[in-house]
Amino acid sequence: MTLRPRLTKNALVFGGVAAWGLLLISCVAVNRTLVAPPSIPGATFVGNKACAECHEETTSHFGGSSHARLAIADAKVGETGCEACHGPGSLHVKAGGTKSTIINPQKSPESCFECHLDKRGEFSLPYSHAVMSGKMSCGECHDPHKGKATKGTGASLQTQAEACTECHTAQKGPFIFKHNAMKEGCTSCHRPHGSVNQKMLAAPDSNVCLQCHATGSSPGMLFAGGRDHAGNPVNGSCWVAGCHEAVHGSNVSHALRF
Amino acid sequence: MNSLSFALRTAGLSAGLAFLSVSVGAAETDAMPTFDSNYITFSAGGADLNGSKPAYQARTQSAKSGAAGIEDMRFDYDLKDKTTLTVTGRALAGQEDYLLNFKLSKDQVGSVEVGYKTFRTFYDGAGGFFPIGNVWMPLFSRALYVDRGQFSLSGTIALPKAPVFTFKYAHSTRDGRKDSTSWGDSNLTGIPIYAGPGAVNPIAAMRKLLPAYVDLDEKNDTWEISARHKVGNTTAVVSLGGNSIKNLNVREMYQNIGELAVFPAPVFTAPTVNNVRAGSPRRTTMTQRHEEDGYHASATFETKVDEKVTVFGGLVYHTADVDIATSRQLIATIASATGVRDYAGGFTNTGPTARAPYHLVAKGDLEYTVVTGNIGARFNPSKDVAIEAALRGERWKDSGKNLGNYSSQGVTLATGAVTSYASQGLHGVENVEKPWTPTLDFRYTGIKNMALYASWEYRTAKQDEHVRYEGLNGQTKANELDMIGKKIDETHSNATIGMSATVSPQLTLRAEVFTKDHENDFNGYDDVIGRNYVLNYDIYGGRLTAVIKPSNQVNLTSRYVLQRGKSTIFHSGLTTTGVLNGWVDGNDSTRHSFSEGITWSVSKAVYVQANGSVVYDQMQTMYPWISGIAKRNFRNADNNYVTGDATVGFSIDRNTTGMIQATYYRANNFDADYAAVGMPLGASGKDSTISLGVRYKIDDKTLLNAKVGYCDSENSTRGGFADFSGPLAYLSIQRAF
Fold it and tell me: Which among A97, A235, B399, B548 is least buried, having the fewest CB atoms inside 10 angstroms?
């Protein structure tokens, strides 16, 4: 048996804390301000009009967006619409629009998490879109400057679920035999920001289907879709092999099989 | 764990975030430099893992082998005549994360941009775990990942006082293999199988836990040309575009692998246990082809009538043709009097009502046309009031057919005789849907330091759907439905009322309540004329956010979200004896989510940031009101969890800053006791990471980042077979030119 020296969790915890204490002592003479992200040290608010001078295409329709309704006119900081998410813009304006002087939520979700704190937790779950690993951004599914921020809702010209089917084209359909849950949107069954369950499902088992398909019961029976399924939850979920595998729609089976 | 996983881009992201905030003020002589352009970052990272490497990859989205290369680069070149060339890139080998993008832009003229990017997402796909027999049967350990790539080309011509022309083309791909949760049967669960005359298992031994996979081969080409112009107070956009989707996805499912029902069946006297009386191994390969060619045209406008009124509207026309093909190849291995053989769609002949597995090849086409329009107006009757009213209308029409050839082989065990069944089935659909959606939004800011808002959206849709189905159900052509129609009426009403208030410099409050009242009425449900199915569901809840700043150094953000969902279902026309023909409760779900974030600037040199979420989430459907065996076999679904993370950033000396980070996740929803009567699928697990990072300024143009850490992940839902732990390390050097 070969023993290899390994870093243990305890060693790292105590070593890290001790190192931190020592380093704190040494930092007092440093002329540098460290602040937590997302923030722009030294910057002040300039108001939406300054933003519109260069970003008119974005700001022109921002007034109709759901994010605009949170804006409060404040004489001290100007209207906080743009800068609520992008940070105070004075240094950005002064520098002629450099990237390091403004917060870009497209690059990092931290700015969104300032308010949507619960989404930070959801994106940290085992099954989530790859936002925390930097492979995706909030802006790929949401347009915070326009309408309801979620694509395809309200009076938008896009169709419902388009935010998802832009990438997930195999689930888009149309199908010969449709699953009408798709009309309610993907979020009927999935938690798009993240879930403890595989495939970001709202529930790991048949409950996700029975939200809509529980159609009645007599003693000992579990009716779904007009048929007794009492014996089926023993085996697993509704979409297991040999059952309703084609949950998004099928071209060959009205019972949604492949 | 994701926030601190050692995926290079994650590490880079974390480091970037943590140090973005380092002062850039000129007065601060020791400020860390930040680089906007003309820089390159090389990095390398990896892990020395114990346990399941596939689980590590899936959980952290990091390659088990580690990765190295160019994490980030950007160069800006000023060319002649106010022309700039910007090159951005990334090349992380191992992680298979690449980007190369060129953008050529000229002031007052426009830009051209071309680039390619791809990244990899990982899956473990090991199937289900069954606690009674400690069963875990990943069939093989082939790497599971999907590469998502996109080549894009775009151009803009933006001459002064002229229309802005834009062209966009993108070729997107998803290629690779990922897991599916359509798991297959196994009787090797550790639950005894009773055999013999009259012997019946009190609980079925079979559970669905064998892994399944999907091979993705998806391509999507999109293009669009648009022109945007402002004339007077009107801005108009017209565009023309198209798309071409080519998907060929192959699913593989396995059932009863490693089992074989022997022939002749041993004779036992109940309750003698007989584990050799199992199922027939089956392997199913299902292929779906979807090739779509579509075109769209659109026009939108927005006119500022005066300072108080803006009107807007638009129209989109989209049409597409789709070629579809399906194949289901099912091979079963069966032991009979003539020995063990493979059969196509094979099954044991047990009479004409048996639902036979089948082989299938089908081919057809679909077409759809969508016309969508909207019109609306924004009113600002005073500086404090904003009202937007809009109406959206749509007409969706799709139709198509698919001709399938079904076949199957039934085996009579006692003789080995095979009976072949075949049937041709024509499936079809004709569907028209016409939703209308009026919306109304209101905002009032007339109260000092406060914004009040309300929004309402009402969607009503009438859908007329006709389908035709002919399949192999039982052993003959059955279930022939000749264009049986469903008429579907939808009424959806969504409303939100909320406020945002700066109560004091120390306290900002945001609160809103929301409700969704949806009713979907299906007449002709389940393809039976006169059968009525109504789904009525209500969702309501609220969100409360408080930002508290007790001092300039401390910022607390609290957010509570409540969501309740209730659905009731009416299903008439069922003929089975004893079935209720009334309203039943389908869903009664509750979700409480509480999140807290704290940022504390301890001093100029130290900050602390911590976030946490506690979520109670239960989905309750039929469990409260079913009875007998149905209740025994079923449970509510719990989806509760806790997450947390903490970061401490600090200055070390004039050239060095440091950062300690930790993350935590825990869920405890796995009910091992449920295995006795069902398949426990609830999520339980615990993850934690801790890391120490430093950033060192070698000189004003060179920064060094290093991190070491440790991760530990336990997954009880997978019986510990997907646990992993180990140290992690990351190093990068960033150089500006």
Answer: A97
User: Residue B307 burial by CB count (10 A; 0-12/13-18/19+): exposed, middle or buried?
Assistant: exposed
In a domain, A10, yes or no: no
Band (A8; pLDDT cuts 50, 70, 90): low
pTM of the prediction? Answer: 0.91
CA A12 to chain centre: 32
Contacts of A90 in chain B (CB under 8 A): none
Say if the Cβ atoms of A24 and B208 lie within 8 Å.
no
Mutate to test the interface with B, among A22, A125, A160 (most CBs of B within 10 A): A125
In a domain, A225, yes or no: yes
> Which run of H or E residues covers position B11?
helix B8-20
Do A119 and A74 belong to one domain?
no
Res. B18 pLDDT band, cuts 50 70 90: very low
Token pair listed for A27: 């930092």
Residue B182 is nearest to which of A27, A183, A239, comparing CB atoms?
A: A239
What is the total count of domains within chain A? 3
Task: Assess whether pLDDT exceeds 90 at residue A163.
Answer: no
Residues of B in contact with A5 (CB under 8 A): none
Average pLDDT, stretch A112-119? 92
The Cα B358–Cα B410 span in angstroms is 10
Q: In A, which residues are within 8 Å of B574 by CB distance?
A: 215-216, 223, 226
Structural domain that includes position A122: 111-140
User: What is the distance between the alpha carbons of residues A171 and A247, in angstroms, rounded to a whole number?
Assistant: 9
Q: Taking CB atoms and an 8 Å limit, are B5 and A133 in contact across chains?
A: yes
Report the distance separating Cα B648 and Cα B671, nearest Å: 37
The domain boundary, picked from A88, A104, A120, lies at A104
- Residues A27-45: tens digit of each pLDDT: 556 777 776 767 777 788 8
Same domain, A177 and A242: yes
CA–CA distance, B217 with B172 (Å, rounded to integer): 11
Residue A94 in contact with partner chain B when CB distance is under 8 A: no
Q: Check if B401 contacts A (Cβ < 8 Å).
A: yes
- For B:252-291, CB contacts with A below 8 A are 253-255, 284, 286, 288, 290
Q: Which residue of A has its CA nearest to B445?
A: A72
Confidence tier at B110 by pLDDT (50, 70, 90): very high
Whether residue A231 lies inside any domain: the answer is yes
* ipTM rounded to 2 decimals: 0.93
Residues A177 and A246 in one domain: yes
Q: Are residues A240 and A181 in the same domain?
A: yes
Q: Do A36 and B21 touch (CB under 8 A)?
A: yes
Please indicate whether, in this complex, the C-beta atoms of B633 and A219 are within 8 angstroms of each other.
Answer: no
Residues A185 and A215 placed together within one structural domain of the fold? yes
Residues A211, A183 share a domain = yes
d(CA B60, CA B67): 13
Q: Does B203 touch chain A (CB under 8 A)?
A: yes
| Any domain includes A152 | no
List pLDDT tens digits, range A48-80: 888 888 888 788 778 778 888 777 655 554 455
User: How far, in whole angstroms, is CA B563 from its chain's centroid?
Assistant: 20
